[in-house]
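Input (Translocation protein SEC63 homolog):
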Amino acid sequence: MAGMHFEYDEQGGTFYYFLLSFWFLVLFPATCYLWPRSSKKDSASDTEKKCICPPCREKQRQLKVNEPWTKAKQKGINIGLAMGWIIFFLLLYKVSMSQMDYVEYDPFTELSVDRSASTADIKKAFRKLSLIYHPDRESGDSKKFMRIAKAYAALTDEESRKNWEEYGNPDGPGVTRFGIALPKWIVERENSVWVLAVYGLVFMILLPFIVGVWWYRSIKFSADQVLLDTTHLYLYFFNKTPSMHLKRVVMILASSWEYDRLHNAEIVERPSDNEELPALMRELSNLGENNKERPLCFPYSIKARVLLFAHMARKSLPADSLEIDKQYILKKCPSLINEMVNVVPQLVGGAVHGKCFSMPTLDTLENIMKLSQLLTQALQEKSPALLQLPCITQDMLKYFVCRKRNIRSVKDFLLMKDDDRRFILRNLSDEEYKNLLDVAASMPYITFEVKSEVIDDDDSTITAGSIVTVTVNLKRESMGDHFRNNTDSPSKKDDKKEMIEAEDLYAKEEAESRVTESPQRRPLRPWEKKKKKNNKKSGKKSNKKVKGPPPRSNASSAQAAAATAAVAETKEDKKGTVATIYPASSETAEVENGKGESENGSDHEGSENSDEDLKDGNWKDNPNGKDDDEDWSKYQADIKKETILETKSKESHPVHCPYFPIEKQECWWLYIADRKQKMLISAPVFISSLKYEEKIEVKFSAPRKPGIYHYSVYLRSDSYLDSDQVHGLRLDVKQAKIIEDHPQWEISDDDDDKKEEEASGDSDYSTDNEESDSE
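Output:
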């Protein structure tokens, strides 16, 4: 009976194959990952647009200080990769020069005859080779002669030939041999102790240690590399203080555990802090150093808070101590602020579902986002936006805001006449003035479009609880290109209208809400009349106790009519609305239920008329008709968009932030809110890849109660002041359709069983007489 036989590599040939394969599997991915990326050289236009103000030059100098270490690190990586590939080619050469120990047995090759040779040719070849390799001859070779005799027997003897054809061996089935691509010295008794020691070191000490370190670090940090203890700290304070002003946000940010040496080994505590920090604190005001809340009163929190306020005040700090600490604190701020933004919607959702006691207000979220802008530009809370521009100082602001002109934003600054602008900035040189205009022209101008719809095959009406898809199209261009390309608005007055478009729209929404919240007085129901009669003691007391509708505004009748017309026009568009995942104010929904029901009636009438038009063959004149091919292509595009995983690079445009220690890219937050109720409707979406155009889709659940809801879609920058935009949206939620029960759907299982038994009884128990009768 055939057995098994394991053989280790005697010559080392197969071991080199294994080593070559393993080395390539490690070296190739490492090369792809660590290969130095070709740094894109700045073009002539980019070089010209770079800011040359003194703070920017100092920042570039500080960034170049770290370049030697970066270059040395990259040089070491390149040398390591080169050595790895040299070893690979040496192994490849060694493998190409090694010979295989095992060669497949072939009797025709042993006798040097063709496979089509006859028996006479085989015998002739055997005699010829026997005269040469017989052991009795001088040129004899016993091993070679045994192989020749074995081959001759395999080709002439029927049984041997059959064994060779079936088992590959003329002698029949032999021992199955397995080769192991490891050198033989590994299993030798003399080396067993060393092999066991290496095995225990690698698999019992190093591997558990590495996995333990990785697991210990992974459970401490979130996906954004923020300490989970810091996230819990944010949850506690935002739940404790729902409405939080900007100073309070700075205090909580400074109390993050990333700035504590016990949680972060990179934090350096210097003895000089005891002398430098008190002097710096005397220069600042309203730091809240007397606050006794933990950990707001801890020394690390106070130090971080003082450095943040000093940064926003653009204070100069000692370069060898506090300046280094301030840069480290600022580098951590973007991820920490983003974590704050993510914590707020969690608390809002928890409050809606009854898991939290308080709900953070919209002002808290906006103060967090504004803090990101202030830290990026090193500005205080009430600093004007013009200070973002280079060479603009606090003393120059009085010339921009006076009786003749009111220049408060970068957009107003660019829309000024060049002569007036140059006259105000006459103290700047031509190079500084050109650099100032280049930086202002490079700031972002976002074209903001919002569209919402219900994706449904049958009906696109927004009903209570339906899923609404909100599509936001963002187009980014620089202010200089926008004002240069748009020649439709040559005057500053028209551009000022565009600038306050959001405010006008919000005011229009407020007018609409006032009109919709004061419907016509309906007749009182019998029980309401009775209640009024019983409670009537005096005219004044009854007026106080009875809860009526909210008081009407003092707007003129013309304004009310215009607002009502605007509401009617908006209601015709079923796709210009947004749904919410959180319940909005129930007052608006309850007040406007009657109007919504009337609108439902008109919609049903319209659908009946459209059906009649289709029956009459007037489908071409129907404005609501849709092409099936377009619907199908749209459906296919949506399916394709959901199935394909699209990876986007987190690269947008560099931010002009000379006081921020690192290079920063433009990022944005997009969210939906109810400004009237000061409540967040959707979780903010962080946009980090808005380079030219971006399309964002968000799906929400419509409110549970029918009615008209007014929301606002906000786009806020994390880097620039005066770049935020708002777009008003109106949601008309209809009553959800009630699914009617049909009698044929209410068939019980017993009825089905009875019918099956009757059918089976007719087929199985029918007699011959019945069959003959039927015939």
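Strands lie at 4-9, 176-183, 444-453, 467-478, 668-674, 679-680, 685-687, 693-701, 707-717, 725-733.
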